[in-house]
Amino acid sequence: MNDNSVFTIFIVFGCIWVLMGVGAVIGLMKMDGQEIRFSKTALVVAIPIIVPIIITLTYAAIRGTF
User: Using an 8 Å Cβ cutoff, are 61 and 55 in contact?
Assistant: First the structure.
């Protein structure tokens, strides 16, 4: 098994965990009867966190190393 396949497996499991977390939060909010909505403030906070992570992981996947 080469280094790239290990990295790919790590990323896939990370994505699965993120999706499970998002699903759990949505499930909890729906169970309480709350409306699911995103404000401008939430996007201002979330986008600067998510975009660099995506760029870094994409660069590492293309280049093959950190």
Answer: no
**Is the distance from CB of 60 to CB of 66 less than 8 angstroms?**
yes
Q: Kindly give the residue spans of alpha helices, DSSP state H, lying in 1-66.
A: 3-31, 40-63
Residue-wise over 13-40: b if at least 16 C-beta within 10 A, else e? eeeeeeeeeeeeeeeeeeeeeeeeeeee
Half-sphere exposure of 27 (CA within 13 A, CB side): 6
Whole-structure pTM over 0.70, yes or no?
no
What integer is the mean pLDDT of 26-43? 79
